[in-house]
């Protein structure tokens, strides 16, 4: 069964079970219309449509049927109508219901009537590009996402377009374009096909580049994902030997994925890196993308959170769909703990967090696309224990403050980056003097020392001048003593693997 077929079956079951309000999230109004038409035709239901632009319209040709009435007035009419298995369609639902208490309360009254009045039967179908459900309607509404076209469907869209041009397309171009179009809606695919054709009068493999460029735009516009151009190399990460070794192994597998799977190796899912602030978690994320030679997408967990019911889940779904569309890629979920704060607390937001969490976990479990997830977090006390259980991620690593050897390495990296390396500087001595410093603290010491040397008539950087700055630095471990102790205890009790 295709995604669309299973959505249809699901919708049909809800209609037959008299669910009063169904909410379709889609960028493709035509596809939603087609689906509604098919649902209605099975038992010849009448369809009334209201949209924001023209009020009540004929569902087929979209011409207004009466003079424009706003949604609240239309709902009042529907409340008074004799309804018998009707479909009542509300388009642009998120815009129409926004700040519209009268429409919201009338929709609620209609839902109650449909549930309790045996004389009336109808299904209200709200459709919109965003899921924004006012809390008052939450318990009446069931949310559905229209799926993006799968590879079969994309094949057909391209073929239809090429046939329309009376042209032909070879198999390789068709397959390359199909891959490139993954994650885009039917409308977006058609638009891009038109643009490609307008460019040079044909659809060819050269259009793949245009598609990929366009995808980057779509990702930027989504506001949830960021495409990070990382210049960090793997050799820029000091210490963390165990983590780096593990990542190198995964890199080898990813670069020979088909062969590895045939051999019986499981495709890598991802890794979670938890630990002390400023100790290289973000740096490792960026360096991993360079090592894997894959694009890096950063998921901004904070921006997932919407204020309407369903909005956060919708954002999460869109983000993961987009990541799959750009796969193979590394998906960096920064500050993972922010998404799942309050799970099980029963407080405000707890339900949303629980649903988001469930969705994320099942996506992790089922994902087939080559998306390598790299999650980073500081405060693991906020994370639900299920996430830390083995099997969710391939591995969880704990990044601690660097030990003496590692500090030496980190000093070397940051001094060399600025062309100020040994032998003039005694790295061992610097490492000895910086017990409890994070990588970020060390970088700050190097930066400041070089700045002061420059101001002092471009003096030569010496071990002593660096130690001078070190003596005047309060490392994070000291400043955040209590918090650090709390993290340490938690990491130890969970027996998380050390990254060093
Ligand atoms: P936070 O939890 O606060 O986001 P983080 O662990 O992600 O911290 P990073 O952002 O990776 O820390 O580190 C900040 C900066 O400190 C890095 O850009 C890098 O310059 C330096 N740094 C930290 N750890 C290391 C390391 N192991 N090797 C080299 N540089 C490091």
Structural commentary:
With 500 residues, this protein is an alpha/beta fold. It has four domains: 3-145, P-loop containing nucleotide triphosphate hydrolases (Rossmann fold); 151-222, no CATH class; 228-399, Rossmann fold, CATH 3.40.50; 404-479, Helicase, Ruva Protein, domain 3 (Orthogonal Bundle), CATH 1.10.8.60. The chain contains 22 helices and 13 strands. The protein has helices spanning 3-16, 29-42, 71-80, 93-97, 101-116, 151-164, 171-181, 186-200, 207-222, 241-255, 257-263, 281-292, 301-304, 311-326, 350-366, 385-388, 404-417, 427-432, 439-455, 463-471, 476-479, 481-494; strands at 21-25, 47-51, 55-57, 84-90, 121-128, 141-145, 225-228, 270-275, 296-300, 329-334, 371-377, 395-399, 497-498. The strands form two sheets. The chain has a seven-stranded mixed sheet. A six-stranded mixed sheet has the order 3-2-4-5-1-6, with helices on both faces. The longest helix is centred in the last third of the chain and has 17 residues, at 350-366. The chain is elongated, with a radius of gyration of 28 Å. It starts with a helix and ends with a strand. Adenosine-5'-triphosphate binds next to helix 12, helix 17 and helix 19. The site of adenosine-5'-triphosphate (ATP) has 17 residues, from helix 12, helix 17 and helix 19.
